[in-house]
Amino acid sequence: SQSTNIMGIPFPNVTMDQTVAILDKVVDQESNELFHVITGNPEIVMSCQKNASLRKVVDQAGLVTADGAGIVMVSRFRGGQLTERVTGCDLLFRLLEEGDQKHWSFYMLGAEESVSEQAVKIIAQRYPGVIVKGRHHGYFQADEEQQIVEEIRTAQPDFLIVALGAPHAEHWINKYRHQLNARVAIGVGGSLDIVAG
Ligand code: UDP
Questions:
Q1: Does residue 44's CB lie within 6 angstroms of at least one atom of ligand 1?
Q2: How far is the CA of 153 from the centre of ligand 1 (A)?
Q3: Quick check: CB of 10 below 6 Å from ligand 1?
Q4: What is the atom index within ligand 1 of the atom nearest the CA of 166?
Q5: How many angstroms is it from 163 CA to the middle of ligand 1?
Q6: Ligand 1 atom closest to the CA of 190, numbered from 1
Q7: Please, which pLDDT band fits residue 79 given cuts at 50, 70 and 90?
Q8: Structural domain of residue 104, as residue ranges?
Q9: Residue nearest atom 5 of ligand 1, based on CA coordinates
Q10: Distance (Å) from CA 165 to ligand 1 centroid
């Protein structure tokens, strides 16, 4: 089977390497459609049981990865083929490494202003080949959203990294998916805090 069903959610059996390879292709294709990656952590899987709107967001995603030791364990227990975790944070680091070589562009949305600023500074030092086209902290008001969307749309990043916490990031990406003009969008939880150290 191509995927492993965990509490009703089909997780494609992809490793980290395969995930990066899929996204590499998506970036190359220059499609106009935003490819939404959801790192399916236990909170998301649990919320989907009762939250139909989140479930719909997950169903519309381009890829759902297994971001949880429990999810991988359940798969192993059943003799399944989900063999490793693909967490938002690990994925972000892999994309920055790959992007350093391939000059991928990013827009970083989320985290506190000082964290956002520091994360982008560190990325510029450590991954000089990466192009950060813009950033915005994650503590904005509803009436500021359209302006942020506009900024991302103009930046046209290969990757929109959304560190707003789950499932807020997933809903946000889905809500604006037709306006964002990014190739790939990923909710990464607290990863920018980790990048910033
Ligand atoms: N965050 C944000 N705006 C908010 C709430 C949270 O930008 O309104 C950021 C927060 O600063 C942190 C991340 O979102 O960087 C949430 O990290 P957490 O580890 O709680 O997310 P999870 O792993 O639960 O998705």
A1: no
A2: 22
A3: no
A4: 25
A5: 6
A6: 17
A7: confident
A8: 3-27+34-196
A9: 164
A10: 4
Q: What is the DSSP string of the chain?
A: --EEEETTEEEE---HHHHHHHHHHHHHHT-SS-EEEEEE-HHHHHHHHH-HHHHHHHHH-SEEEE--HHHHHHHHHTT-S--S---HHHHHHHHHHHHHHHT-EEEEEES-HHHHHHHHHHHHHH-TT-EEEEEE-S---GGGHHHHHHHHHHH--SEEEEES-TTHHHHHHHHTTTT---SEEEE-TTHHHHHH-
Q: Residue 177 carries which side chain, given as an amino acid letter?
A: R
Contact (CB, 8 A) for 178 and 149: no
Q: What is the tens place of the pLDDT at every residue in 117-137?
A: 999 999 999 999 999 999 999
Count Cβ atoms below 10 Å from residue 103 Cβ, excluding itself: 11
Write the CATH number for 22: 3.40.50.10700
| Ligand 1 neighbour 112 (Cβ under 6 A) | yes
Whether 63 has a pLDDT exceeding 80, the answer reads yes
Q: For ligand 1, is residue 99 a contact (CB within 6 Å)?
A: no
- Give yes or no for residue 167 CB within 6 A of ligand 1: no
Model pTM greater than 0.90?
Answer: yes
> What is the number of structural domains in the chain?
1
**Closest-CA residue to 152 (of 138, 168, 135, 137):** 135
